[in-house]
Design brief:
The protein is about 35% helix and about 20% strand. It has about 300 residues and is α+β, with helices and mostly antiparallel strands. The chain is elongated, with a radius of gyration of 23 Å.
């Protein structure tokens, strides 16, 4: 008997990802296997869903129409399964969770044992990347992001708040004039985070209002782990969320500068695709991380 649900799922993911190979990687399968699944669905429906060339896949008219109906069908199946799951209180299945590199290492991974102990039928595919993943294209169930969420196709729930601080290692500051105003940073080696504009233009809140400076120095990086290590190594001054550190601030391994110019705290959101139905495994992770973050002073300044 043909497993139409599996074929529907393979087809929908190929459309969203735009690639047989990417879907095969998600499923720990092979490109020919995914291609055969789509071919089997086409044979089952009696129509061609894709026009294939060596460079791209293009939906046919039938494929475009079927894609929307297949998505609704899969959501209906998932919702029916989850309705039973809610009564049994047993979230299950693979959860693809996207997190920034340092945040994932220091603020998410330490909590995963507890989550898996509570929900043993859930497995986690942790996608660690400082870039913003396309949640639909990459099959991401849930992402953790800081700052305001402006994408109207996403649902965001605030699950934490963090400070941004200007920091340097004592080894860098030794023998140098300590900055007392953001303008003093022009005479220092700053470490710009080049992935986003806010990492190059540093904005502060001073007694007389906002102050902006261009971060310049001999070392630049697009990776949050690189910023952390550059600061710890004494290469210069970084401007980072306080969650980049565990106890390094408290023990003096890094020093917070310009505290009177610290900007407003930044919200941390759990973000997921805008859908009528949210899987129970996703809800469980959101609730769990919100509980854990509430007890972390780096993610809940009220606990300082």
């Amino acid at each position: 008997m043909i497993d139409t649900i599996a074929l529907f799922h393979a087809f929908v993911r190929v459309v969203e990802a735009g690639s047989f190979t990417r879907v095969a990687e998600e499923q720990n399968s092979s490109q020919p296997t995914v291609s055969r699944q789509v071919a089997a669905l086409e044979e089952h429906l009696g129509t061609r869903l894709f026009t294939r060339t060596t460079r791209k896949l293009t939906l046919t008219d039938d494929g475009r129409g079927f894609y929307e109906r297949a998505k609704l069908a899969l959501e209906a199946v998932s919702e029916a399964e989850d309705a039973v799951g809610r009564r049994r209180a047993r979230p299950s299945g693979a959860l693809r969770l996207a997190v920034p590199v340092v945040f994932g290492r220091l603020r998410v991974m330490p909590h995963l044992n507890g989550f898996l102990a509570r929900y043993p039928e859930v497995s986690i595919d942790l996608v660690m990347n400082d870039g913003y993943s396309d949640l639909v294209e990459e099959g991401i169930d849930l992402a953790i992001r800081s700052g305001d969420i402006t994408d109207t196709l996403l649902i965001a729930k605030k699950i934490g708040v963090t400070r941004r601080v200007l920091v340097a290692a004592p080894s860098y500051l030794r023998g140098k004039a300590i900055p007392t105003h953001p303008g003093d940073l022009a005479g220092h080696d700053c470490i710009p985070y080049t992935r986003v504009a806010a990492g190059v233009t540093w904005r502060f809140e001073g007694p007389d209002g906002p102050v902006s400076v261009e971060a310049k120095g001999p070392v630049r990086t697009q990776n949050s782990e690189g910023i952390r290590e550059a600061v710890m190594s004494g290469l210069g001054i970084g401007f980072v969320p306080v969650w980049h550190f565990t106890n390094e601030i408290e023990t003096g391994r890094v020093v917070v500068l310009l505290e009177s110019f610290e900007p407003k705290p930044v919200p941390i959101h759990a973000v997921y695709p805008s859908r009528r139905f949210v899987p129970q495994k996703t809800r469980a992770m959101i609730d769990y991380l919100e509980q854990q973050f509430a007890m972390d002073p780096k993610l809940n300044p009220r606990r300082d």
